[in-house]
């Protein structure tokens, strides 16, 4: 059987080395983790070039990222999915410890992932037909603003014909004039009357919890399909052209895109390229000795196992097979360790990568190197007020040192500490920026010490920095 080439989105370029280079633009360090996830992603792309029989047998090699909070675990997974437009969702394993009481069943992660994929595919299809839809909307607006002339009969037949031609000519001229005005945006504040399709108040309450959530959504869909017009009321409403354009555009986009095809493609994308990031896996590792109303941590692991192993989940968009979804788990594993997981689940996460705690030099790089580095973000924010914000190299080093020492003295929250440090340092300029356009503010080590002072020597540091 021939191999079927389904690679489409920049995938021929995405060698493991290229993937790492892309990740380097947003995440500092963590070379081992980047290498492992880049190989996993490349293998998914390679798998899609195999014959159908072989492709079914090649399963993804799931990964556990081990490291403290704020070192880039979530960002690595999120950026990895963005590289190939793969459906992505992040869930916390600990939220499933109350399933049946407050939480949701583990299959909900696949339903959420599928729902996100449907939205993603629908937006892609909308973008493809956007020009055609906009042209249709303009024609509808012209019809509303310049209604066709009424056919009045008077006089002899030649007179009627001549009058009809004159009205038709004036009508076409008026349409062209309105078309030009719409194109120039001159009529956006004009009022028009349009027919709006409004969804009725849901007749079925959507319950959260095991399966009831899905039952509620399916019943609601069924009732809407039974009702005339798909359960939508059509009403005339006066609104501005700008608002009418927005509403009419959504209608035209929906007409041009087949939602059933969207759902079908979304399910395929989930099954072939979906990525689920399971955070806080360490919180459900190990076996509990006490009994209580909550589901045991080992019970959550056993609930996760069939999803990771491969099962079929019923969603409102169709059945989804999880056999080839890539699962990336993460946790600090300070108290527990991966070997505390039940053996069956350990076997489904064969790849491990340890992410290191961030040092002062890492903080310096985080502040300056990534595409959307924090210093670049604050500079851009102040530029909107006309304030030129500059950071000297010694100041960047000083901020990195402050963040590193704060993490050592209190809870280590990784790169997130930089947000609190920068907010503290720039609090005054952020407050007064609207009153000082045209000014330049240069952040130096002296500037930092003036605003932080000897806070790092204070034993109750959390009062000031956290």
Descriptive report:
The chain has 3 domains: 11-116 and 267-354, P-loop containing nucleotide triphosphate hydrolases (Rossmann fold, 3-Layer(aba) Sandwich), CATH 3.40.50.300; 119-264, no CATH class; 360-452, Helicase, Ruva Protein, domain 3. It has 17 helices and 11 strands. The chain has helices at residues 16-24, 31-47, 52-57, 73-83, 108-145, 157-184, 212-226, 241-256, 259-273, 297-309, 343-347, 360-368, 374-383, 393-409, 416-425, 427-432, 445-452, and strands spanning 63-66, 88-92, 191-198, 233-240, 275-279, 312-315, 318-321, 326-331, 351-354, 388-391, 440-443. With 466 residues, it is of the alpha/beta class. 50% of the residues lie in helices and 12% in strands. Strands 2-5-8-1-9 form a 5-stranded parallel β-sheet, sandwiched between helices. Strands 3-4 form a two-stranded antiparallel ribbon. It has a two-stranded antiparallel sheet with strand order 6-7. It is flat, with a radius of gyration of 29 Å. The longest helix is centred in the first third of the chain and has 38 residues, at 108-145. Helix 1 (16-24) packs across helix 2 (31-47), helix 5 runs antiparallel to helix 9 (259-273) and helix 12 (360-368) packs across helix 14 (393-409).
């Amino acid at each position: 059987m021939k191999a079927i080439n389904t690679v489409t989105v920049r995938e021929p370029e995405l060698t493991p080395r290229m993937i790492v280079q892309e990740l380097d633009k947003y995440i500092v360090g963590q070379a081992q983790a980047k290498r492992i996830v880049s190989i996993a992603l490349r293998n998914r792309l390679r798998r899609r070039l195999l014959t159908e029989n072989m492709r079914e047998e090649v399963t993804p090699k799931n990964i556990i990222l081990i490291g403290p909070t704020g070192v880039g675990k979530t960002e690595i997974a999120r950026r990895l999915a963005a590289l190939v437009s793969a459906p992505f969702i992040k869930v916390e394993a600990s939220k499933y410890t109350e399933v049946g009481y407050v939480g949701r069943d583990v299959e909900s992660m696949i339903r959420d992932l599928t729902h996100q994929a449907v939205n993603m595919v629908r937006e892609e299809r909308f973008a493809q037909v956007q020009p055609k839809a906009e042209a249709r909307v303009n024609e509808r607006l012209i019809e509303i603003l310049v209604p066709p002339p009424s056919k009045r009969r008077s006089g002899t037949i030649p007179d009627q014909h001549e009058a009809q031609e004159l009205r038709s000519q004036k009508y076409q001229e008026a349409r062209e004039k309105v078309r030009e005005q719409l194109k120039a945006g001159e009529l956006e504040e004009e009022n028009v009357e349009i027919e709006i399709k409004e969804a009725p108040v849901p007749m079925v309450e959507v319950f959260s919890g095991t399966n009831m959530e899905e039952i509620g959504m399916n019943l609601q869909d069924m009732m809407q399909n039974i009702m005339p017009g798909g359960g939508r009321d059509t009403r005339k409403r006066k609104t501005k052209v700008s608002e009418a354009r927005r509403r009419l555009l959504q209608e035209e986009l929906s007409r041009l895109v087949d939602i059933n095809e969207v759902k079908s493609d979304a399910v395929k994308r989930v099954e072939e390229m979906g990525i689920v990031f399971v955070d806080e896996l360490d919180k459900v590792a190990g076996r509990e000795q006490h009994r209580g109303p909550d589901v045991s941590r080992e019970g959550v692991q056993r609930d996760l196992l069939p999803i990771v192993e491969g099962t079929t989940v019923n969603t409102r968009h169709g059945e989804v097979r999880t056999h080839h979804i890539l699962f990336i788990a993460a946790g600090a594993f300070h108290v527990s360790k991966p070997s505390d997981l039940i053996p069956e689940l350990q076997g489904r996460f064969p790849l491990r990568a340890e992410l290191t705690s961030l040092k002062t030099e890492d903080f310096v790089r985080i502040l300056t190197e990534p595409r959307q580095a924090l210093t670049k973000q604050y500079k851009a924010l102040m530029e909107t007020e006309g304030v030129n914000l500059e950071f000297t190299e010694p100041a960047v080093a000083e901020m990195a040192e402050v963040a590193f020492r704060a993490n050592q003295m209190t809870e280590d929250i990784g790169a997130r500490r930089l947000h609190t440090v920068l907010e503290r340092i720039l609090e005054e300029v952020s407050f007064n920026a609207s009153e000082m356009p045209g000014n330049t503010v240069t952040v130096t080590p002296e500037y930092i010490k003036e605003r932080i002072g000897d806070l790092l020597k204070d034993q109750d540091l959390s009062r000031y920095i956290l």
